[in-house]
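User: Modeling request: complex.
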Amino acid sequence: MRTFLTVFFKELIDNLRDRRSLASALILGPIFGPVLFAFVISLSIERSLDNADEVMELPVVGQEYAPNLVRYLESRNIDIVAGPESAAAAGEAVKDGVFDVVLVISEDFGRQLADSVPAKVELYSDRANTQGRREARRARDALHAYSRELAALRLAARGVNPLVLRPIDVDQVDVSTPSGRSAILLGMMSYFFIFALLMGGMYLAIDTTAGERERGSLEPLLALPVTRDRLILGKIIATCLFMALSLMLSLISFFFALKFMPLQELGMTPNFGPKVVVAAFFLLAPFILLGASVMTLVASFTKSYKEAQTWLSVVLLAPTLPILIVSLLTLRPRLEFMFVPSLSQHLLLIDMVKNEPVNVLHVVISVTSTLLLGGLLTWLCARLYRREGLLG
Amino acid sequence: MIEVKGVHKSFGKVRAVRDVSFVAPDGKVTGLLGPNGAGKSTLLRILYTVLKPDAGCASIDGADVVTDALTARQRIGALPHGAGLYPHLTARENIAYYARLCGLHKSTVDDKVDDIVKLLEIDDFADRRTKGFSQGQRTKVALARALVHDPQNVILDEPSNGLDVMAMRSLRHLILKLKDAGRCILFSSHVMQEVAALCDDICIIAHGQVAIDGSVESIREQTGCDDLEDAFVAAIHRVESD
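Assistant: Request completed. Predicted assembly structure:
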């Protein structure tokens, strides 16, 4: 026990003094990640929201040919401004990015309307431009609405009920809850936590194995009158501590980052209060031992610090794989999934964020299977530490 | 006392150590001399228990290095070749870490560290982090770390590597001091003069085999060479012609 504590505290102090690895463990993963996530999400929400109250500017060529249409558009909060001189110039202007959308009304517009033949207007936009796509959609919707209104008037004038043109009335009913909708968007956040958790221990895992060997401090350490099991255990538990710290920080910073995301505007209210933060910590905590032992194991096989870093970046990505597969196939949580680490944590976390009842059996399986696997790998690390080949 | 009997060790097809036997008694300095790649480090690694012999046995004060490795390690202070320190810890902390791992009692750790710091004259930089230490400073700290638990047997693998004249001198004094205290000192080197100046007994190794083993005088007699360097060359030729 004393040996274990001596190793544990030494690794703790050693890592705390290494500013570079400390920064990456406790700042980059846990704080930078959620902040970046919040920023990107907020930006994309803001850009994707259709704000009908907002005044939109629409350059129109040939406004003089359709005064009623122009008045109608203005009533829908669309400001009509002068466009390019000609229809040919309109296409160029949109291509060059001078305007996002340009509406071109032809000279014959009035006459075609009067003759009851389809009156032609052209809407220029660039579909590769998100902003332009949104504005084009709004302009198109307004034009369609105007067209429907005219059609209804024409039918009414001929004594036909305009409703004959609407044989089917589609009414979409969305049964998702605000918490449920947010799970779609926040589906990737479980990976953020797993990533931050692994980052928290990565440098320590490398330092205690490949780093120690590269520095030449492993050999004298192994010549000391202590069993190797205790050495490796002290190292792994020290790694776990930093991972737990990193996980805690990332959960807390995510909690605050959520407050700055305009999710309510999308009708989302993720269930991520202080209680869920604590529950999520204990749900993800079993993954710590597994992560620490996997990283230590992988780093033990490598010849140098650099090589260990390369391999561990693969380990950082590995937990995404099951999550990705299940998300792509849109599979519902099943009992078997709870045996897969990272996937089980992901699914349970999503349930919590959706504010759905969490299956206790699933939690038990997730926790025990992840812990067992972690224990097994820790044992493997200890076995590996007894090998002569460890010295490289 | 260190005893080695018929030790073999191979790495794949390379037979690094072949049937090596010798004894390094207490109160004497034994030099393990041999050209680069002769198997000196492998042999010493077996003695400080990080490698296991394929055949034969070795013991430290009677404790077998395989079956009773923990006892053997307790009796050894080892300075492996190119031993590294923890750069974020101070020299003193590096030494204290080993003292604690060797099982020294909490109350005595600080005193022991102070003693060894004084003995090796490293007070000047004892409280600095070891990052950026010179090779000489690093070797001294690594040596202090190996000796902090007062081991009866001291194994040094090429300790003079990278040391300047002054550092070499103080290392020599230290080795003689340990010898006078009745310790068993075994160190390896490929530098003839160094071994001649320090050792009571010399074991010359070439191609993983003992070429010749004995006191400085007996080696001169056996090879018929007055000059120790000539004796060294003669002994190595003898192995090669076998």
